[in-house]
Structure formats: structure tokens, C-alpha cells
Amino acid sequence: MSDHTSSITTGDVDVHPSAIVHRAAQLGRGVRVGPFAMIDANVTIGEGTTTEIGDRNFIMTGVHVGHNVLIGDDVVLTCGALLAGFVRIDDQANLSGNVGVHQFVRIGRLAMVGGVSMVRQDVPPFVLISGNPARANALNTVGLVRAGVDAPHRRALKRAFVLLYRSGLSVPTALTRIEGELGRDPYVQSMVAFIRDSQKRGIVRWAKEK
What we know:
- The chain folds into 3 domains: 4-45, no CATH class; 52-142, Hexapeptide repeat proteins (UDP N-Acetylglucosamine Acyltransferase, domain 1, 3 Solenoid); 149-197, no CATH class.
- 22% of the residues lie in helices and 25% in strands.
- The chain contains 4 helices and 22 strands.
- Strand 2 (8-9) and strand 3 (14-15) form a beta hairpin.
- Helix 3 runs antiparallel to helix 4.
């Protein structure tokens, strides 16, 4: 008999029929295992966990995904990346090796985090950051090109990045300028919405800011 089972449904635990769970895995009350998930032996998922991991993610060895973490789709988490509780990683974000992410931090879509960085504040979409503490260095142009984002949108995002990080404007003033000049671009709209929603931790600062 196989050590794995693909269908568990009780009053305490709900495992989708397409998921594969090792019989030695320990699932606490209230845990729900979604479609096509695989949980091997020596894994313990605590009671009431709400961690969610999306589709087509590349999660390498030694990655820690803390409790109540939300991970979108097409995310890359390189070896040794550590996500504290309540972290949110949006679609297509890329975290390099041995990155640490503070609890309650959100990393935006198509953001890129350089290796051995400590991320203590939210990372706006499409931005490249690195360092300890992590700081914004540039627009993630390579990631945007690889994702098929057209040149007009990339130019709009580059201008938005300059206004946000290199103009010397306060964040509220920069957002007003960005919306006035570039507000019709959907990618810029998503960046602005992200920043306006970033209240708990605030966004990462400019790399050359003292």
C-alpha cells in the first residue's frame, strides 16, 4: 500500500481529491489542502492555518513560508528565502537567495529582490530592490520585458519610478504627479493603488536616500 493518500475529508481536515498527502504528515484542525498540492512526510501544518500558495510557483530548497502567508502565481522563491508570518507575495515576484522578509510586508507584482536582502517595508510592483535594509534601486526592466510588458507601459512605469524615488517629492505629492501625468496607464494605476494601500509598513526607500 502506498504511503500517500489523495482523498481525506473529515470534520477537521479537508484535502482535495487531486492533492497528495503522505500518511505521516500531520495536519491540524481546520486545515484545507487545495488541488494538486503535495505534502510529504515529516511535515506539520498547525491548527487553523490560512497560508495560501498559488499556481506555477518555483519554490526552491530551504525556503520557509510562515503562517498566514499569501503567495500569488508564477512566483520564484530562491534557496533560503525566509518569509515571516502574514507576508504577501504578489504574482510574478522574484526573491533571490537568502532573502529575509519581515512580517506583514507585501511584495508587489513583478518586483525583484536581490540576494541576501532584508525586506522590512512593502515593495511596490515592478521595482528592483536590494540591501539590508532593502532599498529601491531601479525599475525591474528585465522582468517587465520577460513578462511581455510593452515598451509604452515600460516608459510610463520608468517615469513613475523617477517621480516616486528620484524627484525629491514626498510620497503623497509624487503620487499626485504620477496620477496627473500617467494615470491612464493600467500598470501605473496598479502601482499607485499598491502604494496607497501600503499603510502598515510603508514602502521601501530610495537606495541613495540617507
